[in-house]
Amino acid sequence: MKTRLLFLGPPGAGKGTQAARLCESHAMKHLSTGDLLRAEVAAGSQLGKEAEAVMNRGELVSDALVLAIVESQMKALTGGGWLLDGFPRTVPQAEALEPLLAQLEQPIEAVVLLELDDAVLIERMLSRGRADDNEAVIRNRLEVYREKTAPLISYYKAKGLLISVPAEGSVEAITERITAVLS
144: alpha, beta or left, given left = phi > 0 and alpha = psi -120 to 50? Predict the structure, then answer.
């Protein structure tokens, strides 16, 4: 099974849920930039305060900031697989990540794209009840995703790494689909 993975997909597609399940069942390190950033915000660090203001507007945190966080996490790994969730979000981030992974001799083995309709995404995100999830912010996040992140689909498809997985249905059914395509 492939164990150096990147998850792509719009906000609310279930990347975090599926990443956690896959990492637990296959002893992989879950590197969620969202969780790492939220931890900085919760800690009240200067980095966290900067990140919080940006995230509350539904915008993306700077490439340099996120790459620094990811780099420190990747260097701390002691073998085994990993799953990047929420990074890279732009083609320039993907291009910046490649030399780091080459240096660590851990190239990405597969990019899993979780696909879901907007109407289902919006409904799913509103039901989470997070403070930053209201319809206007969600629609803005979907626009930002389309503008900045969707080009990664073509980028990784051209490298032969992209695998699309429908993200509707039960959590278990989606996990089974992902596991099947990675085996």
Answer: alpha
